[in-house]
Amino acid sequence: MRQIRLPAQARSSTDSACVSTATVGSGIRSTTSAACPATDPTCLLIPEHDIGGFAFANRTYAPAALVVRQASARLYDTGALKAVHQRGSDAVRIEQAVAKIYASGSVTAEPQALAVNLLLDRSVAERDRELQALRAQLGECRTRSEMDVRHALSAVLRCACDRGTPTSTVLLAPVPEPSLQRLDFTASD
Predict the structure, then answer these.
(1) Are the beta carbons of 58 and 143 closer than 8 angstroms?
(2) Residue 61 lies in a domain
(3) Whole-angstrom Cα distance, residue 76 to residue 54?
(4) Pairing with 22, which of 52, 100, 182, 189 sits 20 to 30 Å away (CA)?
(5) pLDDT tens per residue, range 22-71
(6) What tens digit of pLDDT does each residue of 100-144 get?
(7) Which SS3 state, helix, strand or coil, does residue 179 take?
(8) In a shared domain, residues 99 and 66
C-alpha cells in the first residue's frame, strides 16, 4: 500500500487527513479519506480485464468504495470480465530481448532490457553458465516464441529449437518502460 499526502495548499484548513491510497492485487484502488471536503471518490482499475469502476459520494462516510467493489464482484461472478492480453510493442520488445539472450548464451546480450535487480540473486557468470548448458542441450531456436501471458507483468515464452523446447519465465518490473525483473530458462521437453 502506498500513501500520498496532498500538498498543504490542496487541503482545506479543517482537513489534515486528505490521503490517497493505492493497492495492487485484484485491481488498483484509489480512494481519498472521508475527511476530504464534499466528496468521497473511489476508483477501481482492473487492467487485466481492461475495465475500471468509479464512484463519487456527496456525503461523508458514504459507501462509495463498497458500491464499486460489489459491482466489480458481480461482473466477475457473472463471467462478464474477460481477460485482455494484448501483445503490444513492449511485449514484442521483451520477447525479442529474451530471444537474443538465449541465442547469444549471455544474459548481458540485451543490457537495456534488464531491470536493476535482475542480477542481484545470481551472478552473470552463473546465469550464463546455466544458459549455455541449456543451449547445448536444446540447440538453436528456429521459430518465433509462443507467449502465454499470465498477467499484465508476467509471461511464459516457449520456442521450438533443434532438440527441444526452452521455456522462459518472464516477470517485468512495474516501471514506465518494462524491463526483465525475473528471467528463468528451463527445458520443457
Answers:
(1) no
(2) yes
(3) 16
(4) 182
(5) 444 445 555 544 455 556 677 777 767 777 787 877 776 777 778 888 88
(6) 999 999 999 999 999 999 999 899 999 999 999 999 999 998 777
(7) coil
(8) no
